[in-house]
Write a structure and sequence with these properties.
Blueprint (H helix, E strand, L loop, with lengths): L1 H14 L11 E5 L3 E6 L3 H21 L8 E6 L6 E5 L5 E5 L15 H17 L3 H10 L13 H12 L12 H13 L4 H4 L11 H16 L2 H11 L8 H9 L3 H25 L6 E2 L8 E8 L2 E8 L7 E5 L5 E6 L5 E5 L3 E9 L5 E9 L4 E4 L6 E6 L5 E8 L2 E8 L4 E7 L5 E7 L5 E8 L3 E8 L4 E4 L7 E6 L5 E7 L2 E8 L4 E4 L6 E7 L6 E7 L2 E7 L15 E2 L19 H8 L10 E2 L12 E6 L4 E10 L5 E10 L4 E10 L3 E13 L5 E19 L4 E18 L9 E13 L13 E10 L10 E12 L5 E11 L6 E3 L7 H11 L8 E2 L12 E2 L1 E20 L4 E18 L7 E14 L3 E12 L7 E7 L4
Helix pairs in contact: 2-3, 3-5, 5-8, 6-11, 8-9, 8-11, 9-10
Length: 966
C-alpha cells in the first residue's frame, strides 16, 4: 500500500490546496455561468466585484488561449492576510485563492488601475493555461479524469507559467501590470548592466537575487520578446502545441516546432533583445550623471525601511536588515558608525523612530492559526526586545505623533482603509478618516507640528499620488497629480517632503519644496531609490536603494553628490505635475477604468442569491488511476484517488486493490480536516515466505489511526499539541500446509505529543539555524489492551547554532524510555530515504511523531540485536558548512544542482533494556546537494561515509540517501 501513499503525497505537493483558509469563518457562495465565488460573511461586495471581473477574464482569456474549461472554476476570496497574493491550481478542479489585500508599497505589484482586476487576470490565466490540454492528454482525461499527470502545461519551467500570466495581466495601453512597470524595467536594466542570467539558471527555483521575482521578471519579458519578434499568434501556437504533450518536459521540441529554434537558442536571441532594449536606457541615465549614495548596510537582498534621528553627536540610523541568510533584524548605526543588531523581526517590517519615545514598528504576525495580520510593536530599549502593542490590529503603517504620546496608524480591513489615532500603548482613541470608493493608503509620515499627515494615496482613475491630510479639518489636499507612481513620502526637517517617483523609466528620490511647490530630483540611478529619511537640515539622506544584489541602505550626502565618470550635475528641478495646494479634493473620482474595460467586452455578470457554502459540492471524485504490482508472490491491481473541497478544509485519499494470486482485497482511506483532525484506515495483506520461497503465511493486518491537533502558530515559532490513537491488529488469514498458526497480534496505542519549533530556514540557508525543535511524546499500550504493554516516553531535542554566515552547528539528543514490554527502539543505518516525506508530511500522516521507534546511527548496520531495546539514547553533533551555490541545471531532463555543502559529524547511541551498558560511537562526513527536479521541486540528497568505532559491530559504510540526516 505504500505506493498509494506516495502518489497521494505527490498530489499534495502539486496541488498546494491544503489548509488554505480559516474553517471557522461562515462561508457563503455565489454563482454565475462559469464561476463559483466562495467568501466569508462580510466580504459579499468583494465577492460580487470579483465575479464581475472574473467573468470578464473568462471571456477574454478563453478566447486568447483558445481553451474553455469544462467545469466551473472555484474562486475563493480570502481576507486572511495583509499581504497581496494569490495562487491557482487545476488539480481536482480549477480553483484559485485570491488574497485581496491590495499592494501598499513599491514591491512589483504596485502598478494597477484596479488591484482585484490585475490579480484575477493573472490567476485566471493560470486556470485556463494549466487546464488546457489536447490530443492524448485530453483523451486520457476523459477516461482517468483530472489526474495530475494529464496537465501538460503544469510540467513547464515556472518562468513560462508565471511569465505567461504576467504577460496577460499586463496592458500596455492602460499602463498596468508588471510587464510594463517601471520597477520591472529597473530590475531588468540592472540585470543587463550586471550580466543576464542564463536559462540554465532561470529554469529552477533560485534563491539568489532577484530570488522569487526571477521567474516573473525573465518570464514576462520573454513573452514580450516572442510577441514582438515572432508575433502574438506564434506565442499562442507555442502554448497550443505544448498542451498535447503526454510525456512531460519536451520544451525544446515544442519551441523548435513552433518558433523554429530550441529554447537555448531562443534565450540567446532573447538576451540580445534585452540588451538592445535596455542598454540605451542605461546610457541615457549615465549621460545625465549618476547620482547615488554610498551603501552603509553590509547586506543587500531585502534590506529596507530606514529612519534617521538627529542627536547631539550626529545622525543615528535605524533600518530593517534582511540578507537572505537569517531572520530580518532591527539594526542601529550610532553617530560613530558602530553597527548593532537590536532585535529579530518578521519579514516585511516597517519602522518609525521618535528621539524620545523610541522605535515603532509594524510587522506581520499570526492572529489565529489561519490569519496573519500586521500589528504595531515598540522596541523596548531597556529590555532589548519588542513589545507588542496591538493584536490582530491590521495596522499596515504606524508613525509617532511629535509629542511621543500618540500614534497615527493606517488600518485596513476587507479593503476598507482608515487612519486611526492611538495612544502610546496602541489603544484606539479616534478614527480620523475612512476611505471611500476603493481608496488605498500606503506609507504615511507626520509633520513636525502633528497637524498634517502626508501619504501615498491611490484613487480610482488617478493612481498613486502624494496627498496631505489635515488632521483638524479631516480633509485631503493633493500635492502631485498624474499617473506616475509616487511613494514613500517623508517630511524632511525643514518641512519639505522627500518621496520616490517613477519618471524617465526609473524610481528616484525627489524633494517637494512646499514654499515654491517645486520638485527637485536628488538621485539618478540605474536601479532605484525608495524609502528615505533625513535627520537634520542639510544633513545626509538615507534611503533604500536597489542594485544587482537586491535592496540595501545608502547614505546620500546633500552637500556633495556622488557621480560617475560622465560628470557631475547638481540636483535640479524636475517637471512633475503638482496640484494646487489649496485645492481640496472631493471624495468623488473619475469613472472606474475597470468598469469601462468590462463594457468593452460586453459582459455583465448576473449575481445570484448567496447560499451557504457546501463542501460536498466540490468533494466528489474527480480522478482515478490504476495501480499494478506484479511479483512472484503478488498480482495486485486496483486504483487510487484523492480530493478536497474548494476551501481546502476537507481532504481525502482512497485506494483499493485486489490480489488475484492471494485472492485478497486491500485498501486504505484517509481524511484530514484542515490541520486539526486526521483519520486513516488501512487493510494490508502481509506475506511470510518459507525457505523454499513459497508463501507460508498470509496475514491480515488492519490499522486504524486518528490524530487530533491543537496548533499554535507564530511567525518565528510553532507549537502543536497532538492526541493520537492507533489500533493495529495482525492475524493469520491463510497458512501453507504444515505451518504453525500464530496468535493474533494487536498493537494498540494512545498517545500525546508536544511539538515545538523555533528554528529558522532562510532563502540562502544551507540548514535550519538560530533555534531548536522539541518533540515530547508519551504513549500507552495498556489502556487499549495491546499485546505490547507499558508506556513509552520520547524526548528529542535538536539545536541549531549559527557559526558563520551560512555554517551551522547542529546538535541532537534523544532519550527513549519504555516500561514493561513496549515495541522496541532500534538504532542503526543512515536514515531512511523517505525521511524527506516524513519531514514534509509527518504532521499529516503522524508516522514521524507517534509509534516511532527507528532512528539512524551512522556507521552501524540496521537490525543489529545489540542496537535494540525498550530504551534508547542517541547524541549527534554536526558541523555543516557551505561549499558552493550553483543554481544551474539542464533543460531536459530537468535536473540541476542548487547548492552543495559539507557535513562533519560524530554520534553515539545505545539501545538497552534497563540501563545502558555499552555506547556505540561513530563519526564521518557527508556531502549534501539540493537537487532541482522537474523545474519546481528541490530534493535534498546526501552522499556520506561513516565509521563505527565499536570493534564488534562497527562498520565502514558508504551511502546515498534522500533527505536530511536530521
Amino acid at each position: 500500500m505504500k505506493q498509494f501513499v506516495v502518489v497521494f503525497l505527490c498530489l499534495l505537493l502539486v496541488s498546494t490546496n491544503v489548509f488554505a483558509v480559516d474553517p471557522n469563518l461562515d462561508w457563503k457562495t455565489i454563482e454565475s455561468e462559469h464561476l463559483y465565488i466562495h467568501f466569508s460573511v462580510g466580504n459579499k461586495a468583494l465577492a460580487e466585484r470579483a465575479l464581475d471581473v472574473a467573468e470578464a477574464a473568462h471571456s477574454r482569456l478563453t478566447n486568447e488561449l483558445n481553451w474553455h474549461p469544462v467545469d466551473k472554476t472555484h474562486i475563493v476570496i480570502s481576507d486572511e492576510t495583509d499581504s497581496p497574493n494569490g495562487f491557482a491550481s487545476p488539480i481536482f478542479f480549477n480553483r484559485t485563492v485570491l488574497f485581496v489585500a491590495p499592494p501598499t508599497s513599491v514591491n512589483t505589484l504596485e502598478d494597477f488601475d484596479d488591484w482585484l482586476t490585475t490579480l484575477i487576470f493573472h490567476e485566471y490565466t493560470h486556470i485556463v493555461h494549466l487546464d488546457k490540454s489536447a490530443g492524448s492528454p485530453e483523451y486520457l482525461r476523459n477516461i482517468f479524469g483530472r489526474m495530475f499527470l494529464l496537465f501538460p502545461n503544469l510540467f513547464q519551467p515556472s518562468w513560462v507559467i508565471e511569465g505567461l500570466a504576467t504577460h496577460k495581466e499586463t496592458d500596455l495601453y492602460r499602463g498596468v501590470g508588471r510587464g510594463q512597470s517601471t520597477l520591472f524595467a529597473s530590475m531588468m536594466r540592472v540585470e543587463v548592466a550586471n550580466g543576464l542570467q542564463p536559462i540554465s539558471h532561470v529554469n529552477f527555483p533560485v534563491a539568489t537575487w532577484p530570488a522569487g521575482a526571477t521567474r516573473y521578471l525573465y518570464g514576462v519579458y520573454f513573452m514580450r520578446f516572442v510577441s514582438e519578434q515572432y508575433g502574438e499568434d506564434k506565442l499562442q501556437l507555442w502554448v497550443d502545441e505544448y498542451s498535447d504533450n503526454l510525456l512531460p518536459f519536451f520544451v525544446n521540441t515544442n519551441a523548435n516546432q513552433t518558433l523554429g529554434k530550441n529554447l537555448t537558442e531562443l534565450w540567446d536571441e532573447y538576451q540580445l533583445w534585452l540588451e538592445k532594449k535596455f542598454k540605451p536606457q542605461i546610457k541615457a541615465i549615465k549621460s545625465r550623471g549618476i547620482r547615488e549614495g554610498v551603501q552603509i548596510s553590509k547586506d543587500a537582498y531585502r534590506t529596507d525601511s530606514v529612519r534617521a534621528v538627529a542627536t547631539a553627536t550626529g545622525d543615528e540610523v535605524y533600518y530593517v536588515r534582511n540578507n537572505g541568510y537569517k531572520r530580518a533584524s532591527l539594526m542601529h548605526i550610532n553617530s560613530a558608525g558602530a553597527v548593532a543588531e537590536l532585535a529579530e523581526l518578521n519579514n516585511g517590517a516597517d519602522l518609525d523612530v521618535h528621539p524620545v519615545a523610541g522605535v515603532l514598528l509594524t510587522q506581520k504576525e499570526f492572529c489565529n492559526n489561519y490569519t496573519i495580520y500586521k500589528d504595531i510593536y515598540l522596541y523596548d530599549e531597556e529590555l532589548s526586545r519588542l513589545k507588542r502593542l496591538t493584536k490582530c490590529g491590521r495596522y499596515l503603517f504606524a508613525n509617532w505623533h511629535p509629542n511621543g504620546k500618540n500614534i497615527y496608524a493606517v488600518h485596513n480591513d476587507a479593503n476598507e482603509f482608515e487612519i486611526h489615532l492611538l495612544d502610546k500603548s496602541g489603544q484606539l482613541q479616534e478614527v480620523l478618516w475612512r476611505a471611500s470608493n476603493g481608496e488605498i493608503l500606503a506609507q504615511i509620515d507626520v509633520s513636525a507640528d502633528g497637524k498634517n499627515i502626508v501619504a501615498s494615496k491611490w484613487r480610482r482613475g488617478n493612481g498613486w499620488n502624494l496627498e496631505l491630510f489635515n488632521v483638524e479639518k479631516r480633509s485631503w489636499i493633493k500635492i502631485t497629480k498624474g499617473v506616475s507612481i509616487t511613494a514613500n513620502p517623508q517630511f524632511s526637517p525643514d518641512g519639505n517632503i522627500l518621496f520616490s517617483l517613477e519618471a524617465d523609466g526609473a524610481y528616484n528620490l525627489y524633494r517637494y519644496i512646499v514654499a515654491s511647490r517645486e520638485v527637485e530630483q536628488l538621485t539618478n540611478l540605474i536601479g532605484g531609490a525608495f524609502q528615505s529619511s533625513q535627520a537634520s537640515v542639510d544633513g545626509a539622506i538615507y534611503y533604500a536603494g536597489y542594485s544587482a544584489e537586491g535592496y540595501a541602505i545608502y547614505k546620500l550626502k546633500t552637500d556633495k553628490l556622488v557621480v560617475d565618470d560622465v560628470g557631475a550635475s547638481n540636483a535640479k528641478v524636475k517637471e512633475v505635475e503638482v496640484a494646487e495646494v489649496k485645492d481640496q479634493l472631493s471624495d468623488s473620482s473619475s469613472k472606474e477604468v475597470v468598469d469601462d474595460y468590462l463594457k468593452t467586452i460586453n459582459y455583465e455578470a448576473a449575481v445570484q442569491q448567496e447560499s451557504d457554502y457546501s463542501a460536498q459540492d466540490s468533494m466528489r471524485m474527480r480522478w482515478w488511476f490504476p495501480t499494478l504490482v506484479l511479483t512472484e508472490q503478488r498480482s495486485e491491481f486496483g486504483f487510487v484517488t484523492s480530493g478536497n473541497d474548494a476551501l481546502g478544509i476537507h481532504n481525502y485519499n482512497f485506494a483499493a486493490s485486489y490480489d488475484s494470486k492471494l485472492d485478497k482485497f486491500a485498501g486504505q482511506i484517509g481524511y484530514a480536516y484542515s490541520d486539526r483532525f486526521f483519520l486513516s484506515a488501512v487493510k494490508l495483506n502481509e506475506i511470510t515466505l518459507q525457505a523454499s520461497d513459497e508463501i507460508g503465511r498470509i496475514s491480515d493486518r488492519n490499522i486504524v489511526s486518528a490524530i487530533v491537533a491543537f496548533p499554535i502558530k507564530k511567525v518565528q515559532q510553532q507549537a502543536n499539541l497532538l492526541f493520537s490513537t492507533i489500533f493495529d491488529k495482525t492475524s493469520d488469514e491463510k497458512l501453507a500446509s504444515g505451518v504453525i498458526p500464530a496468535e493474533s497480534f494487536e498493537d494498540h496505542l494512545l498517545g500525546i505529543a508536544l511539538l515545538y519549533n523555533s528554528a529558522d530556514l532562510n532563502p540562502l540557508s544551507i540548514s535550519l539555524n538560530d533555534g531548536f525543535t522539541l518533540r515530547l511524546v508519551a504513549e500507552d499500550s495498556n489502556l487499549l489492551n495491546s499485546d505490547f504493554t507499558g508506556q513509552v516516553y520520547t524526548f528529542e531535542w535538536r539545536q541549531y547554532i549559527r557559526t558563520g554566515k551560512e555554517s551551522v552547528f547542529a546538535f541532537r539528543f534523544l532519550q527513549g524510555w519504555g516500561s514493561d514490554q513496549p515495541r522496541a527502539f532500534k538504532l542503526g543505518g543512515e536514515g531512511f530515504s523517505d525521511n524527506a516525506l516524513d519531514i514534509l508530511f509527518g504532521s499529516i500522516t503522524g508516522e514521524a511523531i507517534f509509534n516511532r521507534r527507528i532512528y539512524a546511527l551512522r556507521g552501524y548496520e540496521e537490525g543489529l540485536p545489540q542496537l535494540r531495546g525498550r530504551r534508547a539514547q542517541l547524541l549527534t553533533t554536526e558541523w555543516r558548512f557551505p561549499i558552493e551555490r550553483l543554481e544551474q541545471g539542464i533543460m531536459a531532463p530537468p535536473i540541476g544542482v542548487m547548492q552543495w555543502f559539507g557535513v562533519v559529524f560524530a554520534e553515539v547511541g545505545s539501545a538497552y533494556q534497563d540501563s545502558p551498558d555499552t555506547y556505540y560511537p561513530s563519526a564521518g562526513f557527508e556531502v549534501t546537494a539540493d537537487i532541482g527536479l522537474f523545474y519546481n521541486l528541490i530534493l535534498r540528497t546526501r552522499v556520506g561515509y561513516a565509521h563505527g568505532f565499536d570493534e564488534d559491530i562497527g562498520d565502514d559504510r558508504v551511502y546515498l540517501k534522500i533527505g536530511s540526516s536530521f
